[in-house]
Amino acid sequence: MHYFSKVKNRILKIISLLFAINLVLAISWLTYVNNHFTQKAAPFADATIILMGNFNSTYTALGNKTLRRLNHALQLYKQGFTATFLCVGGSRPDKGVYGAELMKQYLISQGVATSAILIEKNSFDTQTNWKNAKQVIANQKWKSVQVISTALHLYRLKGIIEQYPSPLNITYLPISLSQPNPAASYFELWFNVHYDWAAHLSYLLPQATYSWLIKVIRSQN
Q1: Rounded distance, CA 68 to CA 106, Å?
Q2: Residue 142 CA to chain centroid, in angstroms?
Q3: What is the DSSP secondary-structure string of 24-67?
Q4: Three-state DSSP state, 108
Q5: Could you read off the pLDDT of 103-123 as tens digits, one per residue?
Q6: Whole-number average pLDDT of the chain
Q7: Which among 109, 122, 115, 181 has a CA at the least distance from the CA of 148?
Q8: How would you write 111-155 as a 3-class SS string?
Q9: Which residues form the DUF218 domain (predicted)?
Q10: Is residue 63 over pLDDT 90?
């Protein structure tokens, strides 16, 4: 019994050490990514792009991650930094729902005019978010945009955008970590960091493999 007790204690110590290392790395990454964005809202942008975050567990409403981005965008709207919104992403045809449409409905419920909201509802991941958003930007002949999401998401998006330089003036506006609306738990922040790590790793896959995998996870049928 004494032997098994010693083994158990060693295992617990190893698990505790690994968790502590993981926690330090997660906090360090989150801090680094947030410090990467020091821009403030532009005096005025042609449009504010809001990237889809999540749905609730039953895909009947927007999740808190998305609501935080929308509420951040509404603050800019009320302060006169933008007059037009482009809601992007959340295509889940297998669930019978499109996130961009729900985002538009939320903005309207908060007093934004329908005419001030455009949607791009067919994208389903960060790569297709920007690919499809670029087409809307070109069609609208916008010269400047502000992009709203979490810092983790924006950091990945910025990497994708910088692969194809353009004269478009882009301001990245991450939602607040200190006062998000709705509030975020520490566990949610920890989970989001690990989700972000997984997303970065997925980009290392061959493009064909990545495209197949993301469509398996987020079926577009």
Answers
A1: 12
A2: 22
A3: HHHHHHHHHHHHH--PPPPS-BSEEEEE---B-TTSSSB-HHHH
A4: helix
A5: 999 999 999 999 999 999 999
A6: 92
A7: 181
A8: CCCHHHEEEECCCCCHHHHHHHHHHHHHHHCCCEEEEEECHHHHH
A9: 49-179
A10: yes
Instruction: Give the SS3 label for residue 92.
Output: strand
89, 66 in Cβ contact below 8 A?
no
Query: CA-to-CA distance for 209 and 159, rounded, in angstroms?
Result: 20
Q: Return the percent helix, strand and coil in the chain, to nearest 5.
A: 55, 15, 30
90 neighbors 124 (Cβ within 8 angstroms): yes
pTM of the model: 0.89
Whether the Cβ atoms of residue 147 and residue 173 lie closer than 8 Å to each other: yes
